């Protein structure tokens, strides 16, 4: 274990920035979704990419306790964006 206040090791920095880049990319995709909506062709391509080429039809169920049901993938994605739970899966 590292001493509190010491810098990260090279491997720890690699993991830190890898996660940060992924989070920034997810945040950017959310920003596009909020600006242009789910019907935008770029947003739809991102949704297809995330789901191996097909946007799942609704309803969408997630492992999220208390709110497991969403009418469609767009609603689910907007929820993830608002809550900043970018990597929540269905």
List keywords for this structure.
elongated, 90 residues, 2 strands
Summarize the structure in words:
By secondary structure, this protein is mainly alpha-helical. The protein has one domain. It is 53% helix and 4% strand. The protein is built from 3 helices and 2 strands. It has helices at 10-36, 41-50, 73-83; strands spanning 60-61, 69-70. A two-stranded antiparallel ribbon has the order 1-2. Strand 1 (60-61) and strand 2 (69-70) form a beta hairpin. Helix 1 (10-36) crosses helix 3. The longest helix has 27 residues, at 10-36. The protein is elongated. The mean pLDDT is 83.
Question: Biggest sheet, open or closed, and with what strands and sense?
Answer: 2 strands, antiparallel
Q: In total, how many beta strands? A: 2
The sequence of SSEs as H and E is HHEEH
Alpha-beta content class? mainly alpha
Subcellular location: Cytoplasmic vesicle, Secretory vesicle, Acrosome
InterPro entries: Proacrosin-bd
Protein name: Acrosin-binding protein
Keywords: Cytoplasmic vesicle, Phosphoprotein, Signal
SSE layout and pairing:
Elements: H1 10-36, H2 41-50, E1 60-61, E2 69-70, H3 73-83
Helix pairs in contact: 1-3
Précis, in short:
This protein is mostly helical and 90 residues long. It has helices spanning 10-36, 41-50, 73-83, and strands spanning 60-61, 69-70. The longest helix has 27 residues, at 10-36.
